[in-house]
Amino acid sequence: MNARHRRIPISRCRWILILVSTVLVVAGCATLSPDYETPSVNVSAIRALPSDSIAPRFEIELHITNPNRAALNLQGIAYSLKLDGHKILTGVANNLPTIDGYGEGDVTMIATTSLLSSIRFFTDLMNAQRDTIAYELNAKLDLGGLRPNVHVREKGEISLSEQTR
User: Fold this and answer.
1) What is the mean pLDDT of the chain?
2) Residue 10: which H helix or E strand, with range?
3) What is the torsional sign of CA 115, 120, 121, 125?
4) Cα 85 vs. chain centroid, distance in angstroms?
């Protein structure tokens, strides 16, 4: 066999592949901070928009707080709001600002309602006497690149009674 066309044994190729994979995994894990805190996402405003269809549309403003040193270079966000288990609003956005480390910023997105889910929710609300409505806010923040998505979930109750405690 010619010295220029020497074959590398398959087992040696496997070891090289394993070594390269291990180095990449260790390097990827090194970019993740062990003291990374999940950013907080809160609804700061909801405004009704004109709609050409039966389903109403809303402009939702989310306030994002970044409690970490590294900036959040958001590539996209997906958002949903459930009331008493009914998914009422969903929205996405991809033209987002960078949230500086230890900073905060606002993201505005268009959300659409699920008409059938909203009807079921209001039917349930009318049929049962309740003092509170459970809500669940879910947001997925896409940080882009090899960084994992950040999932934020906020749960709570909205009081329907006139008295505040």
Assistant:
1) 81
2) helix 10-30
3) positive
4) 18
pTM of the entire predicted model: 0.67
Contact 160, 128 (CB under 8 A): no
Using CA atoms, how far apart are residues 103 and 68, in angstroms rounded to an integer? 8
Class of domain 40-159: mainly beta
* Terminal Cα-to-Cα distance of the chain (whole angstroms): 87
Whether 89 contacts 81, CB under 8 Å: yes
Q: Is 74 exposed, middle or buried (0-12, 13-18, 19+ CB in 10 A)?
A: buried
- Going by C-beta distance under 8 Å and a sequence separation of 6 or more, which residues neighbour residue 49? 56, 57, 58, 59, 110
Say which residues have a Cβ less than 8 Å from residue 84's Cβ, sequence separation at least 6: 121, 124, 125, 133, 134
Could you give the CA distance from residue 51 to residue 68 in angstroms, rounded to a whole number?
38
- Tens digits of per-residue pLDDT, 33-69? 667 788 888 888 878 888 787 777 888 888 999 998 9
How many CB atoms lie under 10 A from the CB of residue 59? 14
User: Amino acid letter at 141?
Assistant: L
Q: Which tokens hold the place of 42?
A: 């809160």
